[in-house]
């Protein structure tokens, strides 16, 4: 558990950013800051005295209730210490009329030692004060270390009462100097805090000074448009630097590769990108997908041909445009290429390097003299895997209670006893925080005769025995009458009978419950963020796999003779609140057409109507014994087809089936 490890070892996050704004500029300059650099910082908050009636979307705002500049600075420093002082190593304070190069600021703190009291920014002299003392100009932002913030906090009240100043940055600088004896510096540990002061009517696009290009912070930014123009210009500067760095690295790689035993033949294409994956057997060969500008010939649903749309269409359009652009860059001004048609397109995903493309393009090549000619040219492109990013996830614990829901039909009666035994052994005996609700699904004919013969009487007797054995446990059941046991309709009934914060685990009667999986159910299901649909491991038919031999009993072989059943969506972990939200959107979409629900599963509800992350992963903790499932023909064609496929693929592996056929043919021939 990374969260626990981080806490126990005393690790801190790297950088916290505070932006000082006001009611007047909250919807203008502060919004511009939020749209340009906020997403580059790991954590950023906006601080203001008074807030406007409507806070802009996507901004975390802290209002102190007073617009006085000194009071705002005092309250901000106190708030940062109280809520974030123990979580971050560095604190960057800036104003909303400051443009900060986020990547440069992050690079700066990564090169500074946290074992020193740091007050870093644009050093300015106090008016009429000590010539040696300096404060950091607030307009250009400044950096405080965690150790300095912790030492400063006990003196904030004294500074507020004793130090008089008009400017909040001067007040803070005087407070740090008087009580800690630390002055602002613009250079520390070999790192420089470069700034640039904008003149009136400045044109960012025309600024070519080295001082401008090296600046971490630019001030003053008078309006939103200027903020966006600055961001565009600095992004262009940064992009040019990256491209130049790539070219330099590629040249170094070429020079060094020539000295290796492989020589120049050892240079991979593109230079600096991993070499293509080399398969060691026929089963490891990565297949190419064929496409044109209109169609894809390898479709997600298994059909041989489908229309190119959405992200795939955008991907193909972008890669063709990039190919023509690269050709023009290489051959201009002698030749100018324009696309006529994509003749053939191939792509595949290589996990070692990224997406690879091979395009056969019909091009029109024009010379400087105006002559043109149509020709076909094959080009190869690679969209490399970019920098891996850690996506922040909400914090969850393993203490959440899990509510198991088990739908039962008459065809499931033979397997209920084993399910209840495993539930008692792995949850009730271990006192795991898990409850069970049974859902008895009666056929209309059985429901009419329930007074004389209850088909679920045996199950109810087993439940009674469990409740006698475990006095503190109650296992409720719900009876439903239906010919078509739609998973969504059944879940609607269960959802209404439980609190909104309930964590459901929708189980099947063949599921063998264990603590390991229940913990993963808790960890992988996050309220208002993520739902978990595990792929259980289905054991093969022992009659085909072992053919009379003794089955494997070793613990190391328990995942050997079977497969992960990707056609089954019967098991699911989700919060009731998330289900209710998605179900409400579904109801508004289908209106009163309840027959649509018979063609849907809970997975479809979350996929199309929730907007949450759907975490679909193989789950070795869910192992099911082989059984031939009964597929209800009254369900939708897709659900029935998936059930039949699950049964067929669950029989045995291809090698086992081939051996069975071989033995049968031998027996028939004799």
TrEMBL record:
InterPro entries: Chond_GalNAc, CS_glycosyltransferase. GO terms for molecular function: glucuronosyl-N-acetylgalactosaminyl-proteoglycan 4-beta-N-acetylgalactosaminyltransferase activity; N-acetylgalactosaminyl-proteoglycan 3-beta-glucuronosyltransferase activity. It is a single-pass type II membrane protein. GO terms for cellular component: Golgi cisterna membrane. It is found in: Golgi apparatus, Golgi stack membrane. Keywords: Glycoprotein, Golgi apparatus, Membrane, Signal-anchor, Transferase, Transmembrane, Transmembrane helix. Its EC number is 2.4.1.-. Belongs to the chondroitin N-acetylgalactosaminyltransferase family. This is Hexosyltransferase.
